[in-house]
Amino acid sequence: MERIEKGKVLKAEDLLPMKAGHTISKAIDDHFVLFSLAEDTDISPETYLEDKSYFVFKGEADVVGQHLKQGDFIVIKSETLLGIETTGGAYILEGTWKGDEDMKLEKGVVLSLKDQVEIVEGGIANMDIAKREGMKFALLAFDKGQGLTPHSAPGDALVIALEGRARLTMGDVVAEVEAGDQFVFERNIPHGVEALTPFKMALLMVV
After folding, report:
1. Domain residue ranges of the chain, discontinuous segments joined by +
2. Read out DSSP for 68-122?
3. 46: alpha, beta or left, given left = phi > 0 and alpha = psi -120 to 50?
4. pLDDT tens across 127-185, in order?
5. Where are the alpha helices (DSSP H) in the chain?
6. Which phi and psi (to 5°) does residue 4 adopt?
7. What distance in Å separates the CA atoms of residue 51 and residue 139, rounded to the nearest whole number?
């Protein structure tokens, strides 16, 4: 994830600019692309050979006629005529997946990611929802006071805060995130998570 600043709390607008009348895209690796769509813009319908997923960081958009708002996620099956449009503007993360073996969520259905994993009293819940070579996408839910002790990993990891608040550490950096924030843990630097309230997050990991 060389194209995203690491060790800093990021809002959607920090990831990509939004300009009137424009759609802007930025690849963050070989399989994921960030989009900003300004008010009353669209991406023309096309078909793809691989499944696509869409997560709305901020705003609202229609994907293949299905309405997504902030925090919503949808997987679109390959060979589907796929277009995106918005009236109010949106920031979206697009993922590319090989097929059924990669994605554990139902296709063609709008899902609120935070509702796919539940808080366990006094514990931590983890759900891997998708993977492909070199990449894993997971959901984690922490009860208040629970967390991940500092550890390091060989790849970068993008945290997407879905609900609640948490304290993140990375080396000497200490930051608090809440729903709507993003944060990138840099590879090989010890990092940890402490839930300040019941907390849910999505985690996109390079593995």
Report:
1. 12-112, 114-206
2. EETTEEEEE-TT--EEEEESS-EEEEEEEE-STTTB-SPTT--EEGGGGS---TT
3. beta
4. 999 888 888 999 999 999 999 999 999 999 999 999 999 999 999 999 999 999 999 99
5. 12-15
6. -120, 135
7. 20
Segment 68-108, tens digit of pLDDT: 999 999 999 999 999 999 999 999 999 998 766 678 889 99
Q: Is the CB of residue 93 less than 8 Å from the CB of residue 102?
A: no
Token pair for 161: 């805060």
184 vs 1: CA distance, rounded Å: 8
CATH number of 12-112: 2.60.120.10
- Residue 141, CA atoms < 13 Å, CB-side half-sphere: 13
